[in-house]
Write a structure and sequence with these properties.
The complex is a heterodimer of chains A (359) and B (259). By secondary structure, chain A is mostly helical. Chain A is 72% helix and 0% strand. Chain A is built from 14 helices and no strands. In chain A, helix 13 (306-315) packs antiparallel against helix 14 (321-353). The chains are: A mainly alpha (359), B alpha/beta (259).
Chain lengths: 359, 259
């Protein structure tokens, strides 16, 4: 207890200290980083030649310089702040490394065959150099499209049931739990399940486009349900009540108000789910196989897809091997471009459909 | 068009919880009936039973009778959707549809119900409703702009226009001015005065001056204690309630002597 008497006008003791204190210059973090890089580079590069080791040591050195300099000059609270800021920044850098590295490697290796032939030719009657992935591009588009057509209505309606009709019922809870479990199943399991199911019906070793599409749909449904559910929950109850109060039946309220209001979020979720399954390889390996020619019929015959095409071109490149490997890289690059395009589409869709507030 | 509503022996429940007990009152046509009372006493709950919005909440139910023009709204064969087409409602917070323009918001009652209507008739309906809500002159040049772009007071008048566009017989208002500034409040009070020539209006309000200004009859709801059901203490002409109420509780509440 302090001895201050009630009603005393004295200021607390801490106010005697000035409010300003010693601060490191604004450029200090960058200076510290530059110093760390220069020192680590000068010591390690000539002796070991390892860039990775240099970067790691530079990062540690940066932490030490920051901590010590700030601790001495600014006190422990600021030192902690700067130390954690530096740690977070380094973590961000580490997270970026694989991403940039993958994109860079794929672009670097894939650009050689990013030519017209790659988009206009299939591998039909092609051995060795040349050829293209037209059949695989079409396959990926067809299979993904069918998967979307199957999974979006099911996923959307499941989410509508969960949010609008089954709220808090036991069935809804069970569905939510199973959907969460489904989100976690390995993709190969979906492929094997579909393959086994079709083997029971039509005999073994059948491989057709629709099988792959169903396997992808199984993987897509939980994602669509989850994202749609979250979006529907965001629709304010006021809007539902406003529609009911106008004498609008529940189903029309759901379709024209609730779904319409959350359309932008749902479309974004669906597009991201499509992008996610477009790159699946494992389930397509066991359900679609691979073919060299373009096959537009999902109900008959094997179908090539970009991931599977890349996989086989890499593992069984043929002669000369470089031609096959180059095709594999380019197929991977095209897949990345496709997924990136889908993500951009998702952004455009969400902007177009989002509720407007402008005056 | 305006209708008389006769409420008898109405008990309102949320699940097993009796929220409002034993309401008996008559709501006069072409008049404004105000419902006043402390928070949680069941005014809004009672209001929502008049267009069967109460049962939208899971577990909510009602016992008793609400008779409008000889028809019991809670009869087993009555479709709540058609009740709501005759009894419009304006909510406490303005809630225009965010994806719709001003025009579409007013036309929502028609469009959402997929009623066929010629463009010319719909234009006319929208204009008439917006004029009825005293909003036409302010928005006539920007009907295609989003409804959310309006100010709070304008949004609330937009919601009133939306509610009267379905041409209801009764209009329920749940504290329509509580989120508005005094000028917007005045605009809406003037509007209520005009609307009562055509509609039966029931308004819930916390503002006793407002009740005294706009209403012809006033009902006072009270709560006998925490966790106990609310009940209608008395209902009478507004002038009598505010000058010479028959119940002590009413007088205490109105003069600020409560608790």
């Amino acid at each position: 207890m302090t001895t201050t008497t009630p009603g005393s006008r004295e200021l607390p003791a801490t106010f005697d200290q000035p409010l300003n204190q010693a601060t490191l210059p604004r450029w200090f973090p960058w200076g510290s980083l530059a110093l760390a890089v220069v020192v680590a580079g000068a010591v390690l590069l000539p002796t070991t030649g390892s860039i990775a080791a240099t970067v790691v040591v530079a990062a540690l050195l940066h932490l030490v310089i920051t901590g010590v300099a700030s601790g001495v000059r600014e006190g422990s609270r600021k030192a902690k702040d700067r130390l954690v800021t530096a740690l977070v920044t380094i973590a961000f850098g580490i997270a970026m490394v694989p991403l940039v590295s993958v994109v860079w490697t794929v672009i670097d290796n894939g650009r050689h065959r990013l030519d017209a032939a790659f988009f206009t030719q299939s591998m039909f009657r092609i051995v060795g150099e040349g050829g293209g992935a037209l059949h695989a591009i079409w396959g990926t588009i067809i299979v993904t499209l069918i998967a979307t057509v199957i999974s979006v209505p099911i996923g959307l309606m499941t989410a509508v049931y969960l949010v609008e009709y089954g709220a808090r019922s036991r069935l809804a809870k069970a569905i939510t739990f199973l959907v969460d479990v489904m989100t976690g199943i390995p993709s190969i399991v979906a492929g094997l399940a579909v393959a086994a199911f079709f083997a029971l019906l039509f005999g073994p070793s059948l491989r057709i486009g629709i099988m792959g599409a169903i396997a992808l749909a199984i993987l897509m449904i939980p994602t669509v349900v989850r994202s749609t559910e979250e979006m529907l929950k965001l629709v304010p109850n006021d809007l539902r009540e406003a529609a009911y109060a106008l004498g609008v039946p529940k189903w029309r309220t759901v379709v024209k108000v609730v779904l319409r209001t959350s359309l932008s979020g749902i479309a974004t979720g669906v597009t991201l789910a499509v992008a996610r399954v477009a790159g699946e390889t494992a389930p397509l390996l066991v359900t679609l196989g691979l073919t060299v020619g373009t096959n537009f019929n999902p109900l008959e015959g094997r179908m090539a897809t970009l991931p599977v095409f890349a996989y086989y071109s890499y593992t069984q490149p043929g002669v000369p091997a470089e031609a096959g490997v180059e095709r594999a890289w380019t197929a991977a690059l095209v897949l990345i471009i496709l997924v990136m395009a889908l993500n951009l589409v998702a952004r455009v869709i969400s902007r177009v459909f989002s509720p407007k507030t402008g005056r | 068009m305006a209708k008389l509503i006769d409420v008898s022996d109405l008990n309102i429940y949320y699940g097993d919880f009796l929220a409002v007990e034993d309401v008996n009152m008559t709501i006069e046509p072409r008049a404004v009936t105000a419902l006043i009372g402390p928070s949680g006493c069941g005014k809004s709950t009672f209001l929502r039973t008049l267009n069967r919005m109460h049962e939208v909440i899971p577990g909510a139910r009602v016992e008793g009778k609400v008779v409008m023009d000889g028809q019991d709204l809670y009869d087993r064969d009555v479709d709540p959707v058609s009740v709501r087409q005759h009894v419009g409602m304006v909510f406490q917070r303005p809630n225009p549809f965010p994806t719709m323009s001003i025009y579409e918001n007013v036309a929502a009652g028609v469009r959402l119900n997929a009623k066929r209507m010629r463009k010319k008739d719909l234009d006319e309906l929208v204009e008439r409703s917006l004029r009825g809500a005293n909003l036409w002159t302010e928005v006539k040049d920007r009907l295609d702009k989003p409804g959310l772009g309006l100010s709070g007071g304008q949004q609330q008048r937009l919601c009133i226009a939306r509610a009267i566009a379905i041409r209801p017989s009764v209009l329920l208002m749940d504290e329509p001015c509580s989120a508005l500034d005094p000028i917007s409040t005045l605009a809406i009070e003037d509007l209520i005065g005009e609307l009562k020539s055509e509609y039966t209006i029931v308004i819930v309000t916390h503002n006793m001056q407002q009740a005294a200004r706009v209403s012809d009859r006033t009902g006072f709801f009270n709560l006998s204690g925490v966790g106990k059901p609310g009940k209608l203490v008395e209902v009478d002409d507004t002038s009598i309630i505010f000058s010479n109420p028959s119940q002590k509780a009413t007088e205490d509440y109105i003069s600020g002597r409560f608790g």
